[in-house]
Amino acid sequence: MPDSMSNHDYLNKGFDLLLDPLADYVCIRLKDVYGVSDWWRTGVYDRLFENQRMNLPREGTFMDLVNSLDVTASLRLIDVNWREAFKAQLVKSARTWVNELIELRNAVTHRGRQDMTNDQAARGLETMALLLESFDDREEAEKIRKLMRVVRYGSEDGSVAARSVEAADVHLTKKQRALAETLPAEALPSWRDVVSPQADVTRGVYRKAEFAADLAQVAAGTAQSEYQDPVEFFGRTYVTAGMQGLLSQALSRVAGGSGEPVIQLKTAFGGGKTHSMLALYHLMKSGTVLGDTPRTREQLESVFEAAGVFRVPKVHVACVVGTALNPAKSSRPQTMPGVTVNTLWGEIVCQLASSAGKPELYNLVREADKKHVSPGSEALRQVMDDCGSCLVLLDELVAYAKKLYGVDGLKAGSFDNFITFVQELTEAARASRSSLVVASIPESEREIGGEAGQLALEAIEHTFGRMESIWKPVTKDEGFEIVSRRLFLPVEDTDARDRVCEAFGALYHDNAGEFPVEAKEADYERRLAACYPVHPEVYDRLYEDWTTLPGFQRTRGVLRFMASVIYQLWLVGDRSPMILPGSLPLYDAVTRDEITRYLPDSWNAVVDAEVDGEGSEPLLLDQREARYGQFQAGRRVARTVFLGSAPDVAAQNVRGLDRKQILLGCIQPGDNVPVFVDALVRLKGSSQYLYEDTQGVRYWFDTRPSLLKTVADRMGQVGDPEADDALRAQMQRQMKGVDPLGCVQVWPLRSADVPDEEQVRLVVLGVDHGVGATGFDGDAASCARDYLYNRGEAPRTNRNMLVFCACESRRRSDLRERAKRLIAWRGIEADSELLNLDRSQQREVAEGIKGSQADLQSAIREAWCHLLVPSSTVEGGGSDLEFDDVRINAVDGVVPGCLARLRSDESLVERWAPMLLSMELGRLLWDGRDEVGVSELWNMFCRYTYLPRLADRDVLLRCIEEGCAADSFWGVASGVEDGEYVNLTLGERRSVYTTDVLVRPDVASRVIAEREAEKVDDGPGDMPVEPGTVGPHGGEGGDAPSQGDGPTETLLSGFYLDMELDPVNGVMELDTVLAEIVDPLRLADGTRVRLHLSLSAENGAGFDGDTQRTVRENCNTLGYSGQFEE
């Protein structure tokens, strides 16, 4: 057709094609009714008004009279002779079509300057075709339908041959533009530049009932063109493997082949049963038209080959739709004058007899219909064979049976008679030459509907089960093909499509760890191309998740939602390379309502507030922070999570989507993956209805608040002091001593809280005393100095035993925030009964406490990372105190981290070389003296920060013992009595005790030498001088001291100690006795030590029975003897 033709031209062309078959049919019918001689006068001339017949002849030959009629006159003749001539021949709606065409003809004849719209022209041409089909002139009807397709789709072959659709001119408000803003991917074409949606989708003309195939409407000629027009129907239908098998089986059967005589279509709700029946209907009714259309012939070529048939024979079709029939009423078919139909068998036979032009066949069942009794399989077989090839379509059979169940006296008969008829019908089809019965059987409880439906289904299945071929039309993997064919025109630029799919495939392959493992496989790239322009993840979520919802039909539900999505994206000029879950325009009320209509009403508020509404949390996140806004990361993540959240969440074992699935649904080539991961984390922290599983890997929305809002509200009621108390308590539980750093003082409130002991102690400063960006100063420095110099009002003695750990000041607010969150969760747990928390929310509270505690512990490890080690110089006398600020690695804990750093920096000495001690003695400690006590030496190491920090006293004792073997380090004496060294040795190994003294090596050597010389000078009879009793400074003059000049050592063989222990601190005192007294005795050669514990307890009121019983049982268990006295 030339492009210059207007819609008026197409309508005039249609009326030209209509005229000849219409005039022929009208005149032939009038001649049959009024007679050969009188038909023109009675049926034409006398029926028209004078102005309507002014151009008509009063007589002439039959062909002259036929040729004198124009379209308007022919149409009016049907209307004015309806009762007498046409009511019995045509369907009731044909009179409506006639009157509609009369008005249209008048409008075209008196046209103005403005052309008719495409919709007006297409509707008029469709009505002409329907009228021609009503008197069985399908070839001429198809010629007019080709005009209709050109007007509606731009091609005689329908929408499948159309190339593109113009975008609508839409003006959006500023708010609408903000919500609808989309971002193109780098260097990739938009999907709208590669493929166009169907025209009705881009215009948004689909209605709520759209995509619901109705066999009754098609049979009556009142369906939408995409269902009514066989060429357009197959153009938008993806012929699945199941449908191909059904069509080939049916075609083989009606052509006299080996096809199944009875086929049962059984699928879930929305599985495509009725659509499959429509395919059968159009194939059998319009096989010639379909075969003459190149695209449909190519599409159905495999069907004809499988059937071994190359042309569809003449087939008479009877359609029965259970929901369209009323079993309580009779009907009077216009095409069968004098016939009253009561039953289902009467309806089927009436349709077959009328289609075959053999009304007398109805007599075979007339009596059975009148008496509401099934006619028997033989009568039904005879009807089928006398008609020829027949197709009986039984849709919604269970729905019809439910109307009969339990009700007596219906025109249609009883439920039992209905079941009997179904059995007889299947037997008749099996016995017939080339007839076929196809029935749809529901599988879902929604369609079965209650006890009556279940009983009807069981009876029908039992009957059909004897000789049926069950077929399930639509598989899951074919679903997206059906949707794509129905909603989109063929891809115009396959190279561009392939480029987009390759880019997505490369994205998934190069970032394999961020996406599901299947996404990087080559097969997934093929899926991308097959589903284009819709991403496979959209179909996976809809078919795997949403179809589990009651009411969401596998095909129709997906079609309706995706039609709304595509319309809105087309409307706003979406530039994305593919339509991903993150692209879904849930901000649009119509689109949102189309998907939430299957959910409880409470979901609408969730979508508005936390998914994609104006002022929603994701939108605000995108607007507040440019790093998210440049990718619309917040909204895309939220939309993706929502699409994976909606199924019956309470019944799911595994909830929501994992992080990799979420990224798969929202990231396109060129996006920054970490931004979307961060956006997910941010939304989890701020959304009230977004949930996360205990492992932190799966996310979903729910209509029940996740308690985060309650947590946030309670956090706002927690003050900093309360948060600090919780933080301090957590630190005290978390920071335990680790040998040799066994003493840890966490967050002391004053210097008096820090003991002044001869033990290395780590003091962990509170959160207000931290290290800032400029270093350790201010309050933190003042606090550490105060603790180091003082213990309350008294000066601190053991200053070198303290090291400090401080937090980073910048983490102070975060630490308090985390502590407040933990307090809030614990408060909710305490108020669980008051808040009426269900079991799921109680689990959420437990997880919240556990997670908040773990977060706080982690934050503490990260924050307390500054080890502060005090030091000074000898020159300053300790007054020039400084703190070395070094960072620790607290991955294993703050205390282990501090200990590791002290060790690596040698700020804590656990083993000391004698040489180093000798150097310190020579440099600082001898200080002009000849000896220094070990105890005094240890006290110096505890006090002075310019000395090394020894882990404990044993480090010093071990070092001294190891240095005893050398004569250049020091001598050791057991003590000094009356100015003399007791048991002085030099260069000899010995045990060292805190009561010992170290002697300068030169002094010790001289004293020992003098003593040896005195021993040589002593004559016989002189009392021997015990070694080690020489004076500390030697003698003056050459003579050694005489026998009474110095003390002699008396060897004693026994030691006894009697002391009273404190009942509370007795264990600590006993430990000291063992270390300081028992050990030296035990280590002496030949010593046998016995310890005896004497315990006495008195109670003036007397010990009660429980106390006596407990003490006796414990004594018996430990093997001790003890007794109570009066």
Kindly give the count of domains: 6
Structural class: alpha/beta
Number of helices: 52
* Count of DSSP strands: 20
- Given as residue ranges, the uncertain stretches (5+ residues, pLDDT < 50) are 167-171, 1021-1048
Q: What spatial order of strands do you see in the largest sheet?
A: 2-3-4-1-5
Largest sheet at a glance? 5 strands, parallel
- Structural Rg: 51 Å
Mean pLDDT: 84
Region (Disordered): 1010-1050
InterPro entries: DUF499 (IPR007555), HEPN_Swt1 (IPR041650)
Domain Swt1-like HEPN: 13-134
Protein name: Swt1-like HEPN domain-containing protein
Brief summary:
It contains 52 helices and 20 strands. The chain is of the alpha/beta class and 1126 residues long. Strands 2-3-4-1-5 form a 5-stranded parallel beta sheet, sandwiched between helices. It has a 5-stranded mixed beta sheet with strand order 9-10-13-14-15, sandwiched between helices.
